[in-house]
Write a structure and sequence with these properties.
Number of helices: 10
Helix content: 25-40%
Number of strands: 10
Structural class: alpha+beta
Strand order of the largest sheet: 1-2-3-4-5-9-8-7-6-10
Radius of gyration: 20 Å
Shape: globular
Order of helices and strands: EHHEEEHHHEEEHEEHHEHH
Number of domains: 1
Strand content: 25-35%
């Protein structure tokens, strides 16, 4: 039963000519940018922002601020399984992989895999399972097994031959801090990640990523105005080079500026005690088109799709498989 699910990986180049494939989640950061009449301008501007931010952080031996360029690929993972004697597959998740191009030395090096994280099963958990747990009361009670199947699938993917053959390092996922929590500056700092923050208790997202075997630390990089949440296994500060960490910061801070400008493109930096808010007025929106409400609606649609095409028809198989899987290890 432990071998009931296998995985395959496909890649799509993320550049100004990117067009989402049919199986790609339409709510991903990259898919959102690649729709509408301004799609190519959106993509070009986002990539320019990423490269400028990378060079501003990797400033040593970089007098013109143009030494480095990031190349991005979308990594799509499919899960394969047998259902009713028929081979099936389902698009499990998507992350980003970065390659660092050094123009000064004409060399290329691997950046970071992870960065953005997109998952159909996560949509199902948050838009189908969680609302149903509230029974219409508006205050859902978190199911005890909330996120466990998703976490087991994710860890199984990291342990799979498909992942290990392609990637030598574990992923780092970088997303926004929670608007429901208050963050406190610790006094610890890192030359690339910046000022560290912490909070008194985990958010729902922190707990969900914990089911995936990932721990979290919060840092506000130099020149940033708000901390980012970094989810990882192992040692975030020592398992990756400075340039690898910069590749994640440059990529994900850019996406956050686009769709959470109230937090990440604010006019002033986060203070020592910080409560993020999407209701803030003192910020500068980017010129890149993004529809946050549409993203929420599409997330619900994709959650229902996952229920109908993956969870419900394969419930018995999924339950049997999950019962044999070890707990995620951070």
């Amino acid at each position: 039963m432990a071998d009931a699910f296998t995985f395959s990986i496909s890649t799509t180049k993320f550049d100004e000519d990117y067009t989402p494939c049919a199986s790609s989640r339409v709510t991903t950061n990259f898919a959102n940018l690649a729709r509408g009449e301004n799609r190519q301008e959106n993509l070009r501007n986002a990539l320019t922002m990423i490269n400028r931010r990378f060079n501003s952080l990797a400033h040593w031996d970089n007098p013109q601020g143009d030494r480095y360029e990031l190349e991005l690929e979308i990594i799509s993972a499919n899960v394969h399984f047998d259902s009713a004697n028929a081979a099936e597959q389902f698009p499990l998740l998507e992350v980003l992989d970065t390659t660092i191009v050094d123009r000064a030395t004409s060399t290329r090096s691997h950046g970071m895999v992870g960065n953005n994280f997109s998952s159909y099963v996560r949509d199902y958990d948050f838009s189908v399972v969680l609302p149903a747990a509230g029974n219409g009361s508006g205050a859902p009670k978190l199911p005890e097994d909330f996120g466990e199947l998703h976490g087991q699938l994710f860890q199984h993917f990291l342990d799979s031959q498909a992942y290990r053959q392609r990637f030598a390092q574990l992923p780092v996922v970088c997303i926004s801090v929670s608007t429901s929590k208050t963050y406190y500056r610790t006094g610890n700092s890192h030359p690339v990640l910046g000022l560290e923050y912490q909070q008194d208790e985990n958010s729902l997202t922190d707990a969900y990523f914990g089911k995936m075997g990932l721990r979290v630390r919060y840092f506000m990089p130099p020149g940033a105005v708000a901390p980012l949440a970094f989810y990882f296994r192992g040692d975030l500060l020592n398992d990756y080079t400075n340039l690898q960490l910069i590749s994640t910061i440059a990529t994900m801070e850019t996406f956050q500026k686009i769709y959470r400008p109230e937090i990440y493109n604010a006019s002033s930096a986060a203070p020592a005690v910080y409560r993020p808010s999407l209701g803030a007025q003192d910020f500068a929106p980017t010129r890149i088109s993004y529809d946050r409400e549409e993203r929420t609606r599409l997330g619900a649609v994709q959650g229902k799709y996952t229920a109908e095409h993956f969870i419900t028809p394969n419930r018995e198989l999924l339950d049997q498989w999950a019962a044999t899987c070890p707990a995620p290890v951070a």
